[in-house]
Amino acid sequence: MTRKQVFSGLYGKDSIEFERGLINIYPFGIIGKQFHGSVKVHAHHKLLQMFLINSGTTELHINTETILIHGPAFIIIPKNLNHGFNHRGDVNGWIISLSDVALEHMIQTDIDILTAIDVFQYTPITEDNLQSMAIYHVAQRCVDEYHTNLSGRILMMHSLVGQLIVNLYRMQHTEHSNSAVVDSSSALYFRRFKQSIKESYSYKKTIEEYAAELKITSGYLNRICQNVSHQSPKEILINYFITEAKFMLLNIEKSINEISYLLQFEDPAYFTRLFKKKTGVTPREFRNSTGIKKSLIKNSSDDLSSF
Q: What is the tally of structural domains in the chain?
């Protein structure tokens, strides 16, 4: 049994060279050509990716959804988010990879803006959408600066990356937002808690263990989560693994019991009960609702899915 594909670098790579620890830019479409137009669903642990698509058409697979994307457009893929592509012919553009650690350090004086890099976003670039045009022009300037040898190049790229993130944040938030005011410390701990869930990838890990990693008490972690999201840490943990389970149920080669063990639920029957409590259907019912034929699904160890 194998976990989902996770890379610390670009697709298929376990490392990446960031300019001054911040940014890496690579042509979009080349990796797809190396794999006959198909980049399988995967995630990245340590980097945010922005895909700047100048031309062409591609299918984006994001968790359980498929989105048909026509250039020009840009896509924001936060770290640890499942995504993949099926290109329809030639696609051209750029993959702008940003170090999550460097970004967190860079924006620590305005931690709310970090929410801009934790949210999936797909935006067509059109002349009547001035915000999309502004982001496109800043991203293109990043690409141009990356490929020069001009003096002050690194400082300029830091400035442009900052502008890029701020513009993304402004696009995602309107002046009339009624979101609660959250102090910077709580927002940072909350973000690190969510990322730790994704990187640990184990339902067995306790809230106390997460809190210890963050060097805070479980009670303080609970107050942070309630303040930021109006959910308990356990609810956040459960919701993440139910979402992961939905994604994995689309893979007909894995039985429901196998998925339960991959997510590190000790008891498949408990996994099934929890899944039904959160979604209203059993894992088998969810899988059948997607149109996957029963005859294609391994039945040898699915006996507990009817609980």
A: 2
